[in-house]
Amino acid sequence: TIKMLPSKYLRRLFKSSMLKAVRGEAGRGYNLPTGGITDSVTSTKDLTYTDELSKHRNCISLYDLTPHYEENYISETATVVGEVQIEPWATIWNNVVIRGDINLVVIGPYSSVGDNTVIQTVASLPTGLPAKCFIGMNVTIHSDC
Which Gene3D superfamilies match (predicted)? Predict the structure, then answer.
């Protein structure tokens, strides 16, 4: 039969110097020192740096002109400014600039605007893309297109 030791004997066993030495050697394998001052310094929650990496706003209102968009994908690095209407299921990819600051820009449903594209307007003509239109990469679309 196996006889269990009382808990006070177990506590005494865990506090023994031999067991402390074994626990210390086993713990050193996981605690890799870097040799700097940060080895002995810990930070609390109020001292940690918690700012976001990017504060870029991709849909920006300009005066009373606001972008209107629904169920679509707009990349975090894209910029949509002013009176821009993006229909459902349209995609706006990386580094795209859509300027609706002078006149209305309409992006049709199921349209895709590729990387590094710039769409601009003038006061006399609105700019728009028809439904299911694909704009490639590195394209500039002026108002007379």
Answer: Hexapeptide repeat proteins
Helix (H) / strand (E) element for 19: namely: helix 17-28
What does residue 20 show for φ and ψ, rounded to 5 degrees? Answer: -60, -40
Degrees to nearest 5, angle at CA 117 with 107 and 84? 30
Q: Which is it for strands 91-92 and 73-74: parallel, antiparallel or unpaired? A: parallel
Encoding tokens for residue 67?
A: 């972008």
Over the stretch 10-47, which tens digit does the pLDDT of each residue have? 666 656 655 565 555 555 544 555 555 555 555 555 55
The span from the CA of 82 to the CA of 60, in Å, is 7
Identify the pLDDT of residue 129.
73
Q: Is residue 65 situated within a structural domain?
A: yes
Q: From residue 65, give the alpha-carbon distance in Å to each of 59, 88, 102.
A: 11, 19, 9
From residue 94, give the alpha-carbon distance in Å to each of 61, 80, 98.
20, 12, 12
The answer to the question of residue 118 being in a domain is yes
Asked if residue 90 lies in contact with residue 72, where contact means CB atoms within 8 angstroms, the answer is yes
Which residues form the domain of 111?
59-141
